[in-house]
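Appendix C: a fully annotated inverse folding record. The material below is reproduced so that readers can follow the format used throughout the book. The structure is listed first as tokens, followed by the designed sequence.
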């Protein structure tokens, strides 16, 4: 299967190249040349398979023969090496917990799959550098995914003092092939430095730069797989009228759900749940694309006003002749996020802010005859302080990763200066 650049349909490359390039010319996103679809009986069979075998079948629809089946199987097995839990909350409401990976957020799925594909396709002696900016969760997921891989250096830039302690400790204490740099500036400045590095052709060629950000097609396709797993765990008699609610920032997770639906997975409705950075809910309501300045919220991973996966969603709706108005969207304020966290705690479910937004949007839109799934994107321990403040009590959540807090931070400090970064990368 080939992938084309949405901004330039003539630019067509295979899966492995799309993973290596990340973006096409004019910063265009890659999109599959055609959209595979399973028959009803295929779907039935798929839903009885184990997660790894099923995921290989799904991914090979897009990858084709670019990667031999046994190799793909190895990549998938290494990447998806942790459980997914579907928890029943009440009668017709389920929670899909995607945070049981090594860094406690759903981003482990995409990052680990991408790392496997890159290390499989890389020439063995070739040295490459993965350069990424993070506002928290991506840094941890990417570092752990590439940790210890031969001839791959990972350099992560993050805004000094602007991420939570546990988030920082999770990726800045690893050492080995993981290099972390605390930049004096905000996340936008970090992202700017990454862009400048990619625009510097000499630098790019000398150190073989690659990015691991969320627009990489491998990260997106990996995420399609867990929607199948969710439904495989729903009792068959409840599968007719399914609604899924997805907390969204860059809309990668939502795009993946739409790809799952386009493959034939029986999802009736999809809800895009955002915080008050509500570019998409306003766009769907008015038809006007009018991003505002990004506002800080409790659900910081969704503080994004120009979701970079949106062009893929429009492309998908166009090809499937779907109506954008069938996409439900819901924007949730911090006040309502707090209410949601409290209500969930009353029914014995501890949720962090992103997950709470996903639940709140679901119950606001769910009808009596429907069965709903809300996506839990991060482990509550990552947002322990916020949750404790809202619930007014100390949480007894334990996790091995809390031990990271005591490890020494190995980050370099750097002013936001491209020449300094450039020299550093060339060392
Ligand atoms: C990244 C992230 C999101 C947003 O996911 P997108 O795919 O960017 O829409 C939601 N919740 C958490 C905890 C995240 O880390």
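Designed amino acids, in order:
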């Amino acid at each position: 299967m080939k992938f084309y650049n949405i901004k330039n349909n003539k630019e067509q490359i295979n899966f492995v190249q799309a993973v290596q390039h990340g973006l096409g010319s004019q910063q265009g996103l890659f999109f599959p040349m055609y959209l595979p679809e399973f028959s009803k009986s295929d779907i039935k069979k798929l839903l009885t398979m184990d997660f790894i075998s099923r995921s290989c079948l799904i991914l090979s629809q897009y990858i084709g023969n670019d990667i031999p089946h046994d190799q793909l199987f190895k990549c998938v097995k290494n990447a998806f090496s942790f459980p997914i839990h579907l928890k029943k909350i009440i009668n017709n409401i389920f929670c899909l917990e995607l945070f049981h990976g090594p860094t406690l957020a759903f981003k482990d799925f995409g990052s680990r799959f991408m790392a496997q594909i890159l290390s499989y396709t890389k020439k063995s002696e070739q040295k490459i550098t993965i350069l990424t900016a993070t506002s928290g969760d991506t840094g941890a997921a990417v570092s752990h995914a590439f940790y210890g891989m031969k001839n791959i250096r990972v350099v992560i830039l993050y805004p000094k003092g602007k991420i939570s302690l546990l988030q920082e400790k999770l990726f800045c204490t690893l050492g080995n092939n993981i290099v972390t740099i605390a930049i004096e500036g905000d996340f936008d400045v970090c992202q700017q430095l990454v862009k400048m590095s990619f625009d510097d052709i000499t630098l790019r060629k000398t150190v073989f730069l690659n990015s691991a950000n969320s627009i990489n097609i491998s990260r997106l396709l990996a995420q399609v797989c867990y929607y199948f797993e969710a439904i495989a765990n729903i009792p068959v008699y409840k599968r007719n009228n399914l609604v899924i609610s997805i907390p969204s920032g860059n809309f990668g997770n939502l795009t993946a759900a739409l790809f799952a639906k386009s493959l034939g997975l029986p999802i009736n409705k999809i809800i895009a749940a955002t915080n008050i950075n509500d570019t998409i809910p306003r766009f769907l309501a008015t038809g006007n694309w009018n991003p505002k300045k990004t506002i800080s919220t409790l659900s910081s991973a969704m503080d994004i006003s120009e979701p970079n996966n949106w062009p893929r969603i429009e492309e998908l709706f166009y090809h499937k002749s779907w109506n954008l108005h069938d996409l439900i969207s819901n924007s949730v304020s911090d006040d309502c996020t707090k209410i949601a966290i409290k209500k969930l705690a009353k029914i014995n479910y501890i949720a962090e802010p992103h997950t709470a937004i996903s639940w709140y949007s679901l119950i606001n839109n769910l009808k009596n005859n429907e069965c709903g799934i809300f996506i839990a994107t991060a482990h509550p321990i990552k947002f322990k302080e916020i949750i404790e403040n809202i619930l007014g009590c100390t949480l007894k959540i334990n996790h091995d990763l809390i031990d990271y807090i005591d490890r020494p931070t190995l980050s370099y400090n750097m002013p936001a200066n491209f020449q300094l970064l450039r020299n550093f990368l060339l060392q």
